[in-house]
Specification:
This protein folds into two domains: 79 residues, Helicase, Ruva Protein, domain 3 (Orthogonal Bundle), CATH 1.10.8.10; 199 residues, Rossmann fold, CATH 3.40.50.150. It contains 13 helices and nine strands. The chain has a seven-stranded mixed sheet with strand order 5-4-3-6-7-9-8, covered by helices on one side. A two-stranded antiparallel sheet has the order 1-2. A hairpin with a 2-residue loop joins strand 1 and strand 2. Helix 2 crosses helix 3 and helix 2 runs parallel beside helix 5.
Length: 347
């Protein structure tokens, strides 16, 4: 009995001590919070998996400035429808985006898509590495706001005659001849056909004949005539100046013939070397074809007609060759005395 009593006392004491120990253990343990997650040490993220913030799309103006900076590091010449690097860069970007160059100011501050920006930068790179005229890279050039197809088969269209058709044949007191009386127009050395087409636009009642010696150039001209739907109003002839049209007479003859002299041909910039040389070569003094045109124009003009001819910087040479001809020298926005007018009567 005494032994059992002692054993019972020991078990009770043991349970009491165990309960205290358990109670102490529960108090010492941290309290659990509902929904809490077990904290773990963060591992460093490898640098290659870090994402950079998305780059902001460049604006059209920013891309043009970028191109101009690249142009400045290259020995480029700008004389193919655009006269400076800013105008050319804007032209290329507008063509990339499908916008008329006259609308550049409208899009200047707008962001450009990644695809368009990439295409534009590629065109700028091609322009620098190949030295091709920008017009050949996009197969287009504008004259007086009108677009024309162009490729290496013909010279890139650029002529002050286009501007003069608007400013000096508009029917007011400044008109060289009455545009309402113009029924037949001849465009000599038509190239891509741009002046012939502008003449058809400006003189809606006129039939236009266009002549060139190059079959390749006439193929490009035919493409442009078809683009404007002028097949019934613009007729293309292959031949050497007036020989192609026989005895036909015209109320107006326009021409932008080859007029680069021998020194100029020897120093043509790389851009011009991509163009047909026959579109530049005007002989030793640059006026071989101009002389022929002046000698023969009289018999191909109606009595009230006249000749409008671009000759570049050959004014003094021409004046010495024809001192008695009363040539009227005309200025344009970008030229001084590079185009002359002479009436049939004066001839």
């Amino acid at each position: 009995m005494a032994k059992r009593a002692k054993a019972t006392v020991k078990r009770k004491a043991s349970r009491k001590v165990g309960r205290k120990a358990a109670k102490t253990t529960r108090k010492a343990a941290p309290k659990k919070t509902v929904g809490a997650k077990k904290k773990t040490a963060r591992k460093p993220v490898p640098a290659k998996t870090l994402k950079k913030p998305a780059a902001k799309a460049p604006t059209a103006a920013a891309l043009v400035r970028e191109a101009v900076r690249r142009y400045a590091k290259s020995d480029l010449v700008f004389a193919h429808g655009t006269t400076d690097p800013v105008a050319e860069a804007a032209f290329l970007l507008c063509e990339t985006m499908g916008v008329h160059p006259a609308e550049f100011d409208r899009i200047a501050r707008k962001p450009v898509t990644r695809a368009h920006a990439a295409r534009f930068r590629d065109l700028v790179a091609q322009r620098i590495t190949t030295r091709k005229p920008a017009a050949y890279l996009v197969n287009k050039m504008y004259m007086m706001g009108w677009p024309f197809y162009v490729d290496e088969r013909t010279i890139v269209p650029r002529s002050f005659v286009g501007e003069l058709l608007e400013t000096h044949f508009d029917g007011d007191g400044l008109s060289l001849i009455d545009p309402a009386r113009v029924r037949r127009v001849l465009d000599l050395c038509t190239g891509s056909g741009c002046l012939a087409i502008l003449a058809a636009v400006h003189f809606p009642d006129a039939q236009v004949d266009a002549v060139d010696l190059s079959a390749d150039a006439l193929a490009v001209a035919a493409h442009n005539v078809a683009l404007y739907g002028f097949e019934d109003r613009v007729t293309l002839y292959r031949g050497n100046l007036f020989e192609a049209v026989g005895d036909a007479r015209y109320d107006l003859i326009i021409t932008n013939p080859p007029y680069v002299d021998a020194d100029g041909m020897a120093g043509l910039p790389q851009e011009c070397l991509h163009e047909p040389s026959m579109a530049f070569d005007g002989g030793d003094d640059g006026l071989d074809l101009v002389r022929k045109i002046l000698d023969q124009a009289k018999k191909h003009l109606t009595p009230d007609g006249g000749l409008l001819c671009e000759i570049g910087r050959g004014r003094n040479v021409l004046g010495d060759a024809f001192p008695n001809l009363p040539l009227l020298w005309l200025d344009t926005e970008d030229s001084d005395g590079e185009v002359f007018w002479i009436s049939a009567e004066a001839l």
